[in-house]
């Protein structure tokens, strides 16, 4: 046999090995709901966006029920900059006045949502984009943030404007789509009791949706290898108690705070596992779901 033929044969066998490695995972997760949050920072590279979209299409084709929730923080930031509107964050939350809210709704519900929908469709899926307003999916309530150092001082309450948390989810629309041929793609905007739109951190929305849909897994893609310790080393497995300790000692900060808070809420609400994984890695979602190695940080309600 020629060298090139031998090489081809080896590659074919390697492909077969990979497929067989995936088989027990495909069987285990068949018909299970997997909520995947696609983060703004993991969303800036064209090739990665395309590999993400293909992962989602493959998940659906092999019988899983993927639900995509997306962010778009960097994209909102770019648009605000173009429009000369200043922006700032408090503990990972964007302070959102009425003008900023209009931009958030246009960018998340328009540009970003439709881009992801188009990419999934381009790769053979049938995605349907929703904001929390569609089908009355997400009701929001305004949140206020206290300055951590002066928790008892009422004058230190910071008004974040139109920033919300999820007050309720009506999963009917997502359930209907997910259990048919469609892949729901959700932008994190909620409707307030006052009829206004509220800007909700996408991780919080993903966590609540996972909880309400009784998802098997919640996968949060981000722009780091996972949760890192103070030396920058990846923490591969964490329990609820570990997370509390890491927030208290400042190891987890900034945008990682809402991410881990939503993870703990989801775990307490019955989601089996939460994975914080590196969205900068090609096919990160498939690696997590269908290979023995797993990637990133696995969060479980109790230590293993
Ligand atoms: N312990 C930690 N491990 C990893 N990242 C952390 C940690 N603490 C804070 N961060 C910050 O959190 C960021 C991820 O949050 P964020 O930027 O909101 O992500 P995304 O846009 O993907 O939702 C990381 O890029 C990092 O700067
Ligand atoms: C309240 C709040 O901060 N909302 C976020 C919503 C988008 C988001 O969460 O995007 P990422 O997942 O890309 O960070 C924002 O305005 O940036």
TrEMBL record:
Name listed for the protein in its UniProt record? Acetylglutamate kinase
Does the keyword field hold Transferase? yes
Q: Which domain of life is it from?
A: Bacteria
Family, per entry: Belongs to the acetylglutamate kinase family. ArgB subfamily.
What this protein is reported to do is described as: Catalyzes the ATP-dependent phosphorylation of N-acetyl-L-glutamate.
Q: What Gene3D superfamilies does the database record attribute to this sequence?
A: Acetylglutamate kinase-like (3.40.1160.10)
Where is this protein chiefly located? cytoplasm
Q: What is its EC number?
A: 2.7.2.8
What species was this sequence derived from? Crenothrix polyspora
Q: What does UniProt give as GO cellular component? A: cytoplasm
| Ligand binding (substrate) | 72-73, 94, 199
Q: Which GO terms describe its molecular function?
A: acetylglutamate kinase activity; ATP binding
Where is the protein localized? Cytoplasm
Q: Which HAMAP family match?
A: ArgB (MF_00082)
């Amino acid at each position: 046999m020629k060298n090139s033929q031998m090489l081809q044969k080896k590659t074919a066998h390697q492909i077969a090995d990979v497929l067989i490695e995936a088989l027990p995972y495909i069987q285990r997760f068949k018909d299970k709901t997997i909520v995947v949050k696609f983060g703004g920072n993991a969303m800036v590279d064209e090739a990665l966006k395309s590999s993400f979209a293909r992962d989602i299409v493959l998940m659906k084709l092999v019988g899983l029920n993927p639900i995509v929730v997306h962010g778009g923080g960097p994209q909102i930031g770019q648009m605000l900059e173009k429009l000369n509107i200043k922006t700032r964050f408090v503990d990972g939350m964007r302070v959102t006045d009425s003008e900023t809210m209009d931009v958030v709704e246009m960018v998340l519900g328009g540009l970003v949502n439709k881009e992801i929908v188009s990419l999934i469709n381009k790769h053979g899926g049938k995605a349907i984009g929703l904001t929390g307003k569609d089908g009355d999916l997400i009701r929001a309530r305004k949140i206020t943030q206290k300055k951590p150092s002066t928790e008892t001082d009422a004058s230190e309450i910071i008004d974040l404007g139109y920033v919300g948390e999820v007050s309720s989810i009506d999963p009917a629309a997502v359930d209907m789509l997910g259990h048919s041929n469609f892949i729901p793609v959700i932008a994190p905007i909620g409707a307030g009791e006052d009829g206004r739109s509220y800007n909700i951190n996408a991780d919080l929305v993903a966590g609540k949706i996972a909880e309400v849909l009784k998802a098997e897994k919640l996968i949060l893609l981000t722009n780091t290898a996972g949760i890192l310790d103070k030396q920058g080393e990846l923490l591969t497995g964490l329990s609820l108690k570990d997370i509390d300790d890491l927030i208290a000692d400042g190891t987890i900060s900034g945008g990682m705070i809402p991410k881990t808070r939503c993870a703990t809420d989801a775990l307490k609400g019955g989601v089996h596992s939460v994975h914080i994984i590196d969205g900068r890695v090609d096919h990160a979602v498939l690696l997590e779901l269908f290979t023995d190695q797993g990637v990133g940080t696995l969060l479980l309600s109790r230590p293993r």
